Amino acid sequence: MNQHSTNGRGVHRRSVLRAVALGAPLAAAGAFGVHAASADTPNFKIMVTEQVTNKVFVFDKSKSFSNANAYKTWSPGVGGWYNLSDCRIRDTAQFGAIGLAAGSGGKVGIWNITTEKDQELNDVLWSASPGGNPHALERIPNVGAFVSASSSGFLTVYAPTKVSDPSTLKAVQTVNLAGARGVLWDPNGKLLWVAAQKLVRAYSVTGTYRNTRIKATSKSVALSGNGHDIQPDYSNSGRLLVSDTYGVYSIDKSTLARTTLHTVRRIKSYVKMSSGEHFYVKGDDIGTRTWGSPTVAFSQSADRTRSGAEFYKARYYTTAYN
């Protein structure tokens, strides 16, 4: 892996995105979650997938991204977890906060977020091997099902026989969808949204336990390129934020209107806070992982660069949707 200085690139990328007006921020929404910031504050925490060490790190965004400043880490090893491609946390009645992860080596799974600072593979509650370059994993609450998105062209639904016991999860459905990379459960609209090849599509969820199934709805939005990431807009629960090869877009969940926010290529993950601040990771076309970057860029704060790192996804460290 080539190591390289990124301070110049980080500043350039940030200034490019800052040059595109986002509009006035809306009223702040609360964001409560176990092991997460109790509110959307200026010093919120973010979690990142770092592919060189193949770890998930949680950092305070106001501090340097050093080992000493890591709030939490999770290291699953390599094998099927190779090149961690996504991470997020969700709240459960049984375990409190759990971490969700996908690895391009072929694995998806969840781990129990305990009081330990550094967690490993032995904290995994469940894992599976959908294959096809898994890029994301999402949880559907109440039914306890999980859905993974694999970029080679399909979604995999995992459903339990006991909602509180992840070890009972089993693959029950595979749905073809070209270029499936991002997946997000919307608890307000009760829909599963997926970013894929040149479109965003919403799926309804029916059934319980092993009868849980997803079905494509009429809700879909065309994209110019391959979808990469899909996230809630923490400033407006009526919108989704999506990145594709050519930019970042806001999608109105009711009207399906798509608004271009940025025309910067290769944004791999993008989050907008209720304050209006946004942060992102952009593929830098350098080194052996051209899709990653050692920098997480912020629109209203200092960029954070970790020497020798290759970040792929960056998330707001909260279990809340908005």
From TrEMBL:
Alphabetized UniProt keyword annotations: Signal
Cross-referenced Pfam families: DUF6528
Signal sequence interval, chain numbering: 1-36
Claim: Hydrolase is one of the keywords in the record: no
InterPro entries with a match to the protein in the record: DUF6528, TAT_signal
Name by which UniProt lists this protein: Twin-arginine translocation signal domain-containing protein
